[in-house]
Design goal:
Shape: globular
Mean pLDDT: 89
Low-confidence stretches: 1-10, 302-308
Order of helices and strands: HHHHHHHHHEEEHHHH
Distance between the termini: 39 Å
Number of domains: 2
Strand content: under 5%
Length: 309
């Protein structure tokens, strides 16, 4: 314990030099890429499909801070590799910037990825490869701040529309409500509804994806279980949107037509978001318990083999 305290005291000034260097590099990167950062901020505040972008860097910073003892325990300089990664990132940034930084463009997305790569290079330069490995999840998490090009975003919204319409149609039939479907148009007695782009629940789906990704990362050890849970969360994002549309429609038919334009329609997304989390919570607990049980059995097996010998 005494040696550990001595090491911590002697390493604190050294570590602050690393932090100071990273802060200077980060400030330089911000100055160089200010136009992109400004456009990203405006885009995140104005577009519902990208409202998460502005939060991603802060979440990543909190994740690194929470794991700081493991991340910075062996901080070393990696000047050569870090400088090469920074240079490559800046070259890519200016190349994509020349294509334009209009929202929805490939240049906008490519420049953002290049910016993230440049920040990773600064992190590598200041803290070394072992720190990058320890902070790999938060660093890769930054990629979620990449704005989707319009062709990809439109395709995702289209799939969410079609999936939500299909789930809503099945729920109506399950409830015994006569329904006809034509694409994203659903006709029930007295009303025809359209699952429009605004009803695709893209923002809620992204929020559910990010929430479940973080929960799985910190609750599960096996990569396949993490990705299985995240994939299931993606499916549940469509299911909960179908439940939302069916619920609002049935309430408007049998209770009050104003439900289709009332507060539950405008601001009720959080209710169905929480419903999806409640539905997914038992699955996460099951995966966690099965992983724990498997880990115990793997520990017992070598002991049993040793006892036989």
């Amino acid at each position: 314990m005494a040696d550990e305290r001595i090491w911590k005291k002697s390493s604190t000034p050294r570590l602050w030099r690393h932090h100071a260097c990273f802060a200077l590099l980060a400030a330089a990167i911000v100055a160089i890429t200010w136009t992109l950062l400004r456009n990203l901020t405006v885009y995140s505040l104005q577009d519902q499909s990208s409202s998460h972008i502005i939060l991603i860097p802060f979440i990543a910073a909190c994740l690194i801070f929470a794991a700081r003892d493991a991340v910075f325990v062996k901080a070393v300089w990696s000047t050569a590799y870090g400088a090469m990664m920074i240079a490559a990132g800046l070259v890519a940034y200016f190349s994509f910037r020349s294509l334009g930084l209009a929202p929805g463009s490939w240049g906008f997305a490519g420049a953002t990825i290049a910016l993230i790569a440049t920040c990773m290079g600064a992190f590598l330069l200041c803290y070394g490869a072992s720190a990058v490995r320890a902070a790999l999840f938060p660093l890769l998490f930054l990629l979620l701040a990449t704005p989707w090009p319009a062709p990809i975003l439109n395709r995702v919204i289209y799939l969410l529309q079609q999936g939500s319409a299909a789930i809503t149609y099945d729920l109506f039939r399950l409830a015994g409500v006569p329904v006809l479907r034509k694409g994203v148009l659903l006709s029930v007695p007295g009303i025809t509804i359209e699952v429009a782009q605004e009803c695709s629940s893209i923002r809620s789906s992204i929020a559910l994806f990010i929430t479940c990704l973080l929960a799985a990362h910190y609750s599960l050890r096996k990569a396949w279980r993490v990705w299985f849970f995240v994939a299931l969360a993606t499916v549940f994002s469509v299911v909960k949107n179908g439940i939302r549309i069916a619920t609002l429609t049935l309430l408007s038919i049998y209770v009050d037509p104003r439900f289709l334009s009332g507060p539950l329609h405008r601001d009720g997304g959080i209710v169905f978001f929480l419903l999806a989390l409640v539905m997914l919570w038992p699955v996460l607990l099951f995966l966690q318990k099965s992983e724990t049980a498997q880990g115990r059995s793997e520990m017992v097996k070598p002991i049993n083999e040793l006892a036989v010998r």
